[in-house]
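Design job #97: recover the sequence.
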């Protein structure tokens, strides 16, 4: 099975504070190591009159500059999906994941990006509920609103998808990546036994 990475909203409008920039440095370092078979970038856009504009008064991410993908990561992207909602799990995403995985949805996908407490958490939760294991690379996630919100996203996902899917490893090699996969799948076997699915 291919190791697919979903890179959530690494765009100018979300990478605009020193804290968010620090996360970007780690993301760029990870991508330079060429650990993933496929990298899908999601690109968030907003517009005046949207639901988030109407309900929250939030009018960021409306300009082309804000929506632009950060150049540090753009060269690593294999596929791009545009969205106007928190979750990256659009119909287009499900179709792409199936196509990349030989016609069926993958057992797991890796996730990183911005904002941990919003789009990353929503993507991971919907992926979880669709039966795909979301492996959230927490060292490579961040929030444009700072560490407080990033940490809130981590705490929330501990309950939403479980701590075993929150990966805080620093990845340097493909062996590191495989170790994460092996660890998660071994834990899954233990849970399946407890659930009576396998003996």
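Job complete. Output follows.
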């Amino acid at each position: 099975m291919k190791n697919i990475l979903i890179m959530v909203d690494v765009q100018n409008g979300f990478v605009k504070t020193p804290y968010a920039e620090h996360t970007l440095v780690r993301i760029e370092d990870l991508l330079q190591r060429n650990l993933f078979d496929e990298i899908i970038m999601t690109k968030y856009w907003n517009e005046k009159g949207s639901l988030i504009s109407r309900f929250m008064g939030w009018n960021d991410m409306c300009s082309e500059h804000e929506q632009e993908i950060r150049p540090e990561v753009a060269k690593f992207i294999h596929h791009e999906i545009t969205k106007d909602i928190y979750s990256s799990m659009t119909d287009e995403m499900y179709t792409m994941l199936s196509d990349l995985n030989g016609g069926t949805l993958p057992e797991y996908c890796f996730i990183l990006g911005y904002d941990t407490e919003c789009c990353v958490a929503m993507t991971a939760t919907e992926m979880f509920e669709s039966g795909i294991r979301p492996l959230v690379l927490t060292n490579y996630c961040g929030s444009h609103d700072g560490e407080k919100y990033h940490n809130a996203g981590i705490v929330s996902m501990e309950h939403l998808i479980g701590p075993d899917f929150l990966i805080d490893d620093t990845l340097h090699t493909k062996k590191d990546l495989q170790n994460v996969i092996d660890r998660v799948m071994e834990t899954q076997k233990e849970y399946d036994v407890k659930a009576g699915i396998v003996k």
